[in-house]
Design brief:
By secondary structure, this protein is α/β, with parallel strands linked by helices. It has 15 helices and 14 strands. Helices cover 43% and strands 19% of the residues. Helix 2 packs across helix 7, helix 7 packs across helix 8 and helix 11 packs across helix 13. The longest helix has 20 residues. The protein is globular. It starts with a helix and ends with a strand.
Length: 407
């Protein structure tokens, strides 16, 4: 049984390796939730919270276990935590990583000098390969979430949130909710246990957030039994888990108040807003708690809230796509197709209307008309920047009022 004392013990052990991550006030990030704080685990050593559970688990290994080496599977963040702990302790490590993991996470893991094996598929495929390797070669398997000692390590975040909230001069009873990303459930299990077993925040709600395309734990809690997914579909690779853990499912049933889901578009928008407003770099999994707050998935209005930004290891090759999706989803970037009559001054007329509306053209392509258009027509494809969806709609309306047909 995971006890409050075990989480405190983990906190004591982890002091030697953790980078202190602050609670950052974000009063303008979510309208109606001015008392929102972000727990910045994206600034943690290795770039995510995962080092907590991995390091604490390995600190408890016997000499015999250390001599056998460790085995792990991960989409990247747990891999780096295990790799760092193995390097510090001089332990041989073999880590299985799914092919969907960002190259940056794979390379970061390899830099610690561990053996990395790439497995075609998602996390669950890497898990299967790691367990088969364990049976054949021995070694100690370090589970990324379904392990009591790993959960205790992750739970130290809950203790830190309470301590940091107090240091900011807040009354602890005023902390109304903590919002936590959920994949396999290790982080929320530890945080929820720490909060619910503490005497310092008895009324604090603990909410979880999953990607809609990988909602195994949310489905399990709704069905009141563990549910597995046939496949997952989300760019938030850190929480793309088909099967919730046995331990974590039970801890979520016991301590978690609710788990909700967010779409990939909502996650992309959250990443964009975190970059612009808070100067935070968050990966998809790290931004889901903020996405849930931004899109009113939870009753947080007027409450004192802490959202955990669990990691910042986003693939820089993928980041432009995520930003572009966030801009499109918010109406700040739009692709318009306009049918024009081919005659001088048409492009100037369209440009003037867009400029008068306060929007900006960033790209355009001019093509002849199509089969079902007037023979004297042409097609103008524009990419415009605008303030939001309402502003974009104002541009479209103004073009229509001046006789331009927006297809």
């Amino acid at each position: 049984m995971l006890t409050y004392n075990k989480i405190q013990q983990a906190a004591s052990v982890l002091k030697q390796v953790l980078r202190p991550t602050d609670l950052v006030w974000a009063p303008r990030l979510v309208p109606g939730c001015e008392q929102l704080y972000l727990k910045a685990e994206n600034w943690q050593v290795t770039g995510s919270f995962k080092v907590r559970g991995a390091y604490y688990k390995m600190s408890l290994m016997t000499d015999d276990e250390k001599n056998r080496g460790v085995i792990a599977c991960s989409a990247g963040n747990h891999a780096q935590g295990v790799a760092l702990a193995a390097q510090r302790a001089g332990i041989d490590a073999t880590i299985f990583i799914p092919s969907i993991a960002p190259i940056s996470k794979i390379e970061a893991t390899e830099r610690y000098g561990v053996r990395v094996v790439i497995v075609d598929g998602v996390y669950d495929d890497a898990y299967q390969a790691a367990r088969e390797f364990e049976q054949t070669n021995g070694g100690v398997f370090i589970h990324p979430f379904d392990d009591e000692q790993v959960i205790a390590g992750q739970g130290t975040i809950g203790l830190e949130i309470l301590d940091q909230y107090r240091k900011k001069g807040k009354i602890l009873d005023e902390l109304d909710a903590i919002v936590v990303p959920v994949g396999g459930g290790g982080l929320i299990s530890g945080v929820a246990a720490a909060i619910k077993k503490s005497n310092r925040a008895k009324n604090c709600k603990v909410y979880g957030v999953q990607a809609a395309g990988a909602a195994s734990m949310a489905n399990s809690l709704a069905a009141q039994q563990r549910q597995s997914l046939e496949h997952v579909a989300t760019f938030a690779d850190g929480i793309a888990v088909k099967h919730p853990g046995e331990l974590t499912y039970q801890y979520c049933m016991d301590y978690v108040d609710e788990i909700v889901t967010v779409t990939d578009d909502e996650i992309a928008i959250a990443i964009l807003h975190l970059m612009e407003q808070q100067k935070f770099i968050a990966e998809g999994a790290g931004a889901v708690a903020v996405a849930a707050a931004m899109f009113n998935k939870l009753p947080l209005a007027g409450k004192n809230v802490c959202a955990i930004v669990s990691g910042g290891n986003i693939d820089v090759n993928n980041l432009p796509r995520v930003i572009n999706r966030g801009l499109l989803a918010t109406g700040r970037l739009s692709h318009l197709t306009i049918e024009l009559i081919e005659r001088p001054g048409q492009l100037m007329g369209v440009s003037k209307i867009i400029a008068d509306c306060g929007a900006n053209v960033v790209d355009l392509v001019h093509n002849p008309g199509r089969e079902n258009t007037d023979i004297a027509s042409c097609i103008l494809r524009l990419t415009i920047e605008s303030k939001d969806k309402d502003h974009r709609d104002d541009v479209i309306r103004a073009l229509g009022e001046h006789g331009y047909k927006v297809l």
